[in-house]
Protein backbone atom coordinates (compact mmCIF):
# COMPACT_ATOMS: atom_id res chain seq x y z
CA UNK A 1 0.00 0.00 0.00
CA UNK A 2 1.55 3.34 -1.02
CA UNK A 3 1.85 6.29 1.31
CA UNK A 4 -0.20 9.25 0.07
CA UNK A 5 1.56 12.55 -0.38
CA UNK A 6 0.15 15.95 0.43
CA UNK A 7 -1.02 17.56 -2.81
CA UNK A 8 -0.41 21.22 -3.57
CA UNK A 9 -3.99 21.96 -2.58
CA UNK A 10 -6.28 19.90 -0.33
CA UNK A 11 -8.38 17.31 -2.15
CA UNK A 12 -12.01 18.21 -2.66
CA UNK A 13 -14.51 16.44 -0.37
CA UNK A 14 -14.91 12.85 -1.46
CA UNK A 15 -11.71 12.83 -3.52
CA UNK A 16 -8.75 10.48 -2.88
CA UNK A 17 -5.21 11.55 -2.06
CA UNK A 18 -2.62 11.35 -4.83
CA UNK A 19 0.39 9.09 -5.19
CA UNK A 20 3.75 10.29 -4.10
CA UNK A 21 5.89 11.19 -7.09
CA UNK A 22 8.13 13.59 -8.95
CA UNK A 23 7.07 13.76 -12.59
CA UNK A 24 4.16 15.87 -13.77
CA UNK A 25 1.78 13.74 -15.87
CA UNK A 26 0.44 14.66 -19.30
CA UNK A 27 -3.28 14.44 -18.67
CA UNK A 28 -4.01 14.62 -22.40
CA UNK A 29 -2.75 11.05 -22.71
CA UNK A 30 -5.54 9.68 -20.52
CA UNK A 31 -8.65 8.56 -22.44
CA UNK A 32 -12.01 10.03 -21.48
CA UNK A 33 -13.30 6.74 -20.07
CA UNK A 34 -12.33 3.17 -19.35
CA UNK A 35 -12.67 1.23 -22.64
CA UNK A 36 -16.01 -0.61 -22.82
CA UNK A 37 -17.09 -3.74 -24.68
CA UNK A 38 -20.44 -5.45 -25.09
CA UNK A 39 -21.65 -8.71 -26.61
CA UNK A 40 -20.71 -10.37 -28.86
CA UNK A 41 -17.39 -10.18 -27.07
CA UNK A 42 -14.25 -9.59 -29.12
CA UNK A 43 -11.76 -11.05 -26.66
CA UNK A 44 -8.76 -10.17 -28.79
CA UNK A 45 -9.80 -6.52 -28.64
CA UNK A 46 -10.56 -6.75 -24.90
CA UNK A 47 -7.16 -8.28 -24.17
CA UNK A 48 -5.46 -5.61 -26.27
CA UNK A 49 -7.30 -2.84 -24.41
CA UNK A 50 -6.24 -4.21 -21.02
CA UNK A 51 -2.63 -4.48 -22.17
CA UNK A 52 -2.70 -0.96 -23.64
CA UNK A 53 -4.77 0.97 -21.10
CA UNK A 54 -4.64 -1.30 -18.07
CA UNK A 55 -8.39 -1.86 -17.80
CA UNK A 56 -11.62 -2.53 -19.69
CA UNK A 57 -15.30 -2.89 -18.78
CA UNK A 58 -17.09 -5.91 -20.25
CA UNK A 59 -20.84 -5.39 -20.18
CA UNK A 60 -23.25 -8.13 -19.11
CA UNK A 61 -20.58 -10.81 -18.79
CA UNK A 62 -21.96 -12.63 -15.73
CA UNK A 63 -25.47 -14.04 -15.93
CA UNK A 64 -28.19 -12.99 -13.52
CA UNK A 65 -28.66 -16.43 -11.97
CA UNK A 66 -25.08 -16.58 -10.70
CA UNK A 67 -25.23 -13.00 -9.43
CA UNK A 68 -28.48 -13.60 -7.57
CA UNK A 69 -27.17 -16.76 -5.91
CA UNK A 70 -23.98 -15.05 -4.82
CA UNK A 71 -25.85 -12.04 -3.46
CA UNK A 72 -28.17 -14.32 -1.50
CA UNK A 73 -25.23 -16.23 0.00
CA UNK A 74 -23.47 -13.00 0.96
CA UNK A 75 -26.65 -11.53 2.48
CA UNK A 76 -27.15 -14.65 4.59
CA UNK A 77 -23.53 -14.57 5.80
CA UNK A 78 -23.63 -10.88 6.72
CA UNK A 79 -26.94 -11.34 8.53
CA UNK A 80 -25.14 -13.78 10.83
CA UNK A 81 -21.73 -12.10 11.15
CA UNK A 82 -21.37 -8.56 9.83
CA UNK A 83 -18.29 -7.84 11.97
CA UNK A 84 -16.26 -10.52 10.17
CA UNK A 85 -16.03 -8.25 7.14
CA UNK A 86 -14.74 -5.16 8.95
CA UNK A 87 -11.02 -4.29 8.98
CA UNK A 88 -9.00 -6.32 11.49
CA UNK A 89 -5.62 -6.88 9.83
CA UNK A 90 -3.69 -5.84 12.94
CA UNK A 91 -1.97 -3.06 10.97
CA UNK A 92 -3.67 0.34 11.49
CA UNK A 93 -2.42 1.81 8.20
CA UNK A 94 -3.72 -1.16 6.24
CA UNK A 95 -7.08 -1.10 8.04
CA UNK A 96 -7.42 2.57 7.06
CA UNK A 97 -6.63 1.60 3.48
CA UNK A 98 -9.33 -1.10 3.56
CA UNK A 99 -11.94 1.37 4.82
CA UNK A 100 -13.86 1.49 8.08
CA UNK A 101 -17.24 1.67 6.34
CA UNK A 102 -16.37 -1.06 3.86
CA UNK A 103 -17.20 -4.73 4.40
CA UNK A 104 -14.70 -7.17 2.88
CA UNK A 105 -15.16 -10.91 2.90
CA UNK A 106 -12.36 -13.24 1.84
CA UNK A 107 -12.02 -17.02 1.81
CA UNK A 108 -14.85 -17.09 -0.71
CA UNK A 109 -13.88 -20.44 -2.22
CA UNK A 110 -15.02 -22.18 0.95
CA UNK A 111 -17.66 -19.69 2.13
CA UNK A 112 -19.90 -19.48 -0.93
CA UNK A 113 -20.56 -22.18 -3.57
CA UNK A 114 -21.48 -19.48 -6.10
CA UNK A 115 -18.12 -17.80 -5.59
CA UNK A 116 -16.44 -20.97 -6.84
CA UNK A 117 -18.53 -20.69 -10.01
CA UNK A 118 -17.30 -17.13 -10.46
CA UNK A 119 -13.65 -17.98 -9.75
CA UNK A 120 -13.83 -20.69 -12.43
CA UNK A 121 -16.12 -18.72 -14.78
CA UNK A 122 -15.23 -19.95 -18.25
CA UNK A 123 -14.60 -16.56 -19.86
CA UNK A 124 -13.08 -14.83 -16.83
CA UNK A 125 -10.67 -17.67 -16.02
CA UNK A 126 -9.71 -17.99 -19.69
CA UNK A 127 -8.95 -14.27 -19.73
CA UNK A 128 -6.78 -14.61 -16.63
CA UNK A 129 -4.87 -17.49 -18.17
CA UNK A 130 -4.27 -15.57 -21.42
CA UNK A 131 -3.08 -12.43 -19.67
CA UNK A 132 -0.63 -14.26 -17.41
CA UNK A 133 0.53 -17.02 -19.80
CA UNK A 134 3.60 -15.10 -21.09
CA UNK A 135 5.15 -15.26 -17.60
CA UNK A 136 4.08 -18.62 -16.16
CA UNK A 137 2.88 -22.16 -16.82
CA UNK A 138 0.13 -22.16 -14.21
CA UNK A 139 -1.84 -19.39 -12.53
CA UNK A 140 -3.08 -19.10 -8.95
CA UNK A 141 -6.03 -17.47 -7.29
CA UNK A 142 -4.38 -14.47 -5.66
CA UNK A 143 -7.54 -13.58 -3.73
CA UNK A 144 -11.31 -13.42 -4.04
CA UNK A 145 -13.10 -10.65 -2.15
CA UNK A 146 -16.58 -9.37 -1.60
CA UNK A 147 -16.12 -5.59 -1.35
CA UNK A 148 -19.14 -3.69 -0.08
CA UNK A 149 -18.55 0.06 0.18
CA UNK A 150 -20.98 1.56 2.66
CA UNK A 151 -22.60 5.00 2.79
CA UNK A 152 -20.24 7.88 3.67
CA UNK A 153 -17.12 5.80 3.05
CA UNK A 154 -14.16 7.93 1.98
CA UNK A 155 -12.21 7.17 -1.22
CA UNK A 156 -9.22 4.88 -1.06
CA UNK A 157 -5.73 6.19 -1.58
CA UNK A 158 -4.61 5.63 -5.15
CA UNK A 159 -2.59 2.45 -5.39
CA UNK A 160 -1.47 -0.49 -7.49
CA UNK A 161 -2.39 -3.98 -6.31
CA UNK A 162 1.15 -5.07 -7.15
CA UNK A 163 2.32 -2.88 -4.24
CA UNK A 164 1.39 -5.77 -1.96
CA UNK A 165 4.28 -7.75 -3.41
CA UNK A 166 6.79 -4.92 -3.62
CA UNK A 167 6.06 -1.18 -4.05
CA UNK A 168 9.06 -0.77 -6.35
CA UNK A 169 8.23 -3.74 -8.56
CA UNK A 170 9.27 -2.75 -12.08
CA UNK A 171 6.44 -2.63 -14.58
CA UNK A 172 6.64 -4.60 -17.79
CA UNK A 173 4.61 -5.39 -20.88
CA UNK A 174 2.87 -8.40 -19.39
CA UNK A 175 1.30 -8.32 -15.91
CA UNK A 176 2.07 -10.64 -13.02
CA UNK A 177 -1.45 -10.24 -11.65
CA UNK A 178 -4.90 -9.37 -13.01
CA UNK A 179 -8.31 -8.81 -11.45
CA UNK A 180 -11.93 -9.18 -12.54
CA UNK A 181 -14.33 -7.00 -10.53
CA UNK A 182 -17.97 -8.11 -10.91
CA UNK A 183 -20.66 -5.53 -10.17
CA UNK A 184 -23.21 -7.15 -7.83
CA UNK A 185 -24.98 -3.80 -7.51
CA UNK A 186 -24.76 -0.84 -9.88
CA UNK A 187 -21.44 1.01 -9.72
CA UNK A 188 -22.04 4.78 -9.90
CA UNK A 189 -20.00 7.90 -9.29
CA UNK A 190 -22.11 8.50 -6.17
CA UNK A 191 -21.84 5.08 -4.51
CA UNK A 192 -18.14 4.33 -4.97
CA UNK A 193 -17.45 3.03 -8.46
CA UNK A 194 -13.85 1.85 -8.86
CA UNK A 195 -11.70 4.58 -10.38
CA UNK A 196 -8.82 3.85 -12.73
CA UNK A 197 -5.98 5.90 -14.22
CA UNK A 198 -5.81 4.36 -17.72
CA UNK A 199 -2.30 3.76 -18.99
CA UNK A 200 -0.64 4.25 -15.60
CA UNK A 201 0.84 0.75 -15.66
CA UNK A 202 3.33 2.07 -18.22
CA UNK A 203 4.56 4.90 -16.03
CA UNK A 204 7.98 5.01 -14.37
CA UNK A 205 7.98 4.39 -10.64
CA UNK A 206 7.14 7.49 -8.64
CA UNK A 207 5.20 9.29 -11.33
CA UNK A 208 2.41 11.37 -9.85
CA UNK A 209 -1.28 10.79 -10.60
CA UNK A 210 -3.83 13.57 -10.24
CA UNK A 211 -7.52 13.38 -9.44
CA UNK A 212 -8.33 14.74 -12.90
CA UNK A 213 -6.89 11.58 -14.43
CA UNK A 214 -9.28 9.22 -12.63
CA UNK A 215 -11.92 7.50 -14.74
CA UNK A 216 -14.85 5.84 -12.93
CA UNK A 217 -15.82 2.34 -14.04
CA UNK A 218 -19.58 2.91 -14.26
CA UNK A 219 -21.26 -0.51 -14.37
CA UNK A 220 -24.63 -2.19 -14.23
CA UNK A 221 -25.11 -5.45 -12.34
CA UNK A 222 -23.37 -8.22 -14.26
CA UNK A 223 -20.76 -5.96 -15.85
CA UNK A 224 -17.13 -6.78 -15.09
CA UNK A 225 -14.12 -4.48 -14.80
CA UNK A 226 -11.01 -6.30 -15.98
CA UNK A 227 -7.71 -4.73 -15.01
CA UNK A 228 -4.00 -5.32 -14.60
CA UNK A 229 -2.85 -5.24 -11.00
CA UNK A 230 -0.13 -2.71 -11.86
CA UNK A 231 -2.58 -0.01 -13.01
CA UNK A 232 -3.26 2.84 -10.55
CA UNK A 233 -6.80 2.73 -9.17
CA UNK A 234 -8.90 3.12 -6.04
CA UNK A 235 -12.30 2.40 -4.62
CA UNK A 236 -14.41 5.52 -4.93
CA UNK A 237 -16.03 7.35 -2.06
CA UNK A 238 -19.68 6.58 -1.31
CA UNK A 239 -21.52 9.89 -1.08
CA UNK A 240 -24.94 8.32 -0.55
CA UNK A 241 -26.77 8.12 2.75
CA UNK A 242 -28.28 4.66 2.45
CA UNK A 243 -26.90 2.75 -0.56
CA UNK A 244 -23.97 0.37 -0.57
CA UNK A 245 -21.87 -0.65 -3.55
CA UNK A 246 -21.15 -4.37 -3.68
CA UNK A 247 -18.68 -6.09 -5.97
CA UNK A 248 -16.76 -9.35 -6.10
CA UNK A 249 -13.10 -9.07 -7.04
CA UNK A 250 -11.43 -12.23 -8.36
CA UNK A 251 -7.68 -11.80 -8.67
CA UNK A 252 -5.25 -14.20 -10.34
CA UNK A 253 -1.45 -14.13 -10.25
CA UNK A 254 1.38 -15.99 -11.93
CA UNK A 255 1.98 -19.36 -10.32
CA UNK A 256 5.39 -18.50 -8.88
CA UNK A 257 4.27 -15.54 -6.75
CA UNK A 258 3.00 -15.69 -3.19
CA UNK A 259 -0.77 -15.23 -3.08
CA UNK A 260 -2.34 -12.34 -1.20
CA UNK A 261 -4.71 -14.85 0.37
CA UNK A 262 -3.15 -18.08 1.61
CA UNK A 263 -5.12 -20.61 -0.43
CA UNK A 264 -3.99 -23.73 1.39
CA UNK A 265 -5.23 -22.22 4.68
CA UNK A 266 -8.50 -21.10 3.11
CA UNK A 267 -8.96 -24.75 2.18
CA UNK A 268 -6.79 -27.18 4.19
CA UNK A 269 -6.24 -30.57 2.53
CA UNK A 270 -9.30 -32.25 4.04
CA UNK A 271 -11.48 -29.39 2.76
CA UNK A 272 -9.73 -29.03 -0.59
CA UNK A 273 -10.25 -32.74 -1.30
CA UNK A 274 -13.97 -32.03 -1.64
CA UNK A 275 -13.55 -29.00 -3.92
CA UNK A 276 -13.60 -29.15 -7.72
CA UNK A 277 -10.09 -29.97 -8.93
CA UNK A 278 -9.83 -26.68 -10.82
CA UNK A 279 -10.55 -24.66 -7.68
CA UNK A 280 -8.14 -26.69 -5.53
CA UNK A 281 -5.35 -26.19 -8.05
CA UNK A 282 -6.01 -22.44 -8.22
CA UNK A 283 -5.75 -22.32 -4.43
CA UNK A 284 -2.26 -23.85 -4.60
CA UNK A 285 -2.73 -27.61 -4.70
CA UNK A 286 -0.57 -28.09 -7.79
CA UNK A 287 3.12 -27.57 -8.52
CA UNK A 288 4.32 -24.88 -10.91
CA UNK A 289 6.33 -26.83 -13.47
CA UNK A 290 8.70 -25.11 -15.91
CA UNK A 291 10.87 -28.13 -16.70
CA UNK A 292 9.69 -28.07 -20.32
CA UNK A 293 11.42 -24.70 -20.76
CA UNK A 294 14.58 -25.49 -18.81
CA UNK A 295 13.28 -24.53 -15.38
CA UNK A 296 12.21 -26.52 -12.36
CA UNK A 297 9.33 -26.97 -9.94
CA UNK A 298 8.06 -24.90 -7.04
CA UNK A 299 5.13 -25.36 -4.73
CA UNK A 300 5.99 -29.01 -4.14
CA UNK A 301 4.97 -31.27 -1.28
CA UNK A 302 7.34 -34.02 -0.10
CA UNK A 303 9.35 -33.64 -3.30
CA UNK A 304 6.29 -34.11 -5.49
CA UNK A 305 3.07 -32.54 -6.64
CA UNK A 306 0.75 -31.45 -3.78
CA UNK A 307 -2.17 -33.03 -5.59
CA UNK A 308 -1.08 -36.28 -3.93
CA UNK A 309 -2.67 -34.88 -0.77
CA UNK A 310 -6.00 -34.80 -2.59
CA UNK A 311 -5.49 -38.26 -4.11
CA UNK A 312 -5.39 -36.82 -7.61
CA UNK A 313 -1.81 -37.79 -8.42
CA UNK A 314 -0.03 -41.11 -7.78
CA UNK A 315 2.19 -41.04 -4.71
CA UNK A 316 5.91 -40.93 -5.42
CA UNK A 317 5.45 -39.67 -8.97
CA UNK A 318 8.93 -39.03 -10.44
CA UNK A 319 9.80 -35.72 -12.12
Description:
The chain has one domain (4-254): Sandwich (Jelly Rolls), CATH 2.60.120. Helices cover 23% and strands 18% of the residues. The protein has helices spanning 43-53, 64-80, 92-98, 108-111, 113-119, 122-132, 263-266, 269-272, 277-283; strands at 4-5, 18-19, 36-37, 55-58, 102-105, 139-149, 177-183, 195-196, 215-216, 224-228, 233-234, 245-254, 288-289, 297-298. The strands form four sheets. The chain has a seven-stranded mixed beta sheet with strand order 3-4-10-7-12-6-5. Helix 2 (64-80) crosses helix 5. The radius of gyration is 20 Å and the shape is globular. The relative contact order is 0.19.
Structural class: alpha+beta
Uncertain parts: 1-25
Order of helices and strands: EEEHEHHEHHHEEEEEEEHHHEE
Alpha carbon gyration radius: 20 Å
Look up the CATH topology: Jelly Rolls
Strand arrangement, major sheet: 3-4-10-7-12-6-5
Major β-sheet profile: 7 strands, mixed
Number of helices: 9
- Give the overall shape: globular
Level-2 CATH architecture: Sandwich
Amino acid sequence: MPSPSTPDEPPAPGEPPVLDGRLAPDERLVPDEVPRFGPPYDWAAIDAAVLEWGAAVVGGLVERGLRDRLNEEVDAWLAQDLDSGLPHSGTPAYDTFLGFRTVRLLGLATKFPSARDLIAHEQILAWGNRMLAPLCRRILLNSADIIQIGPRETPQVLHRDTDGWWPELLHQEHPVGVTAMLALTPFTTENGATRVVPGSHRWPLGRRATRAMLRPAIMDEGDVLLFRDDVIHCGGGNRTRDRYRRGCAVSYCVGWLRQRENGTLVAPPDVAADLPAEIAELLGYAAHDTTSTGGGLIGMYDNGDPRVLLRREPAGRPW
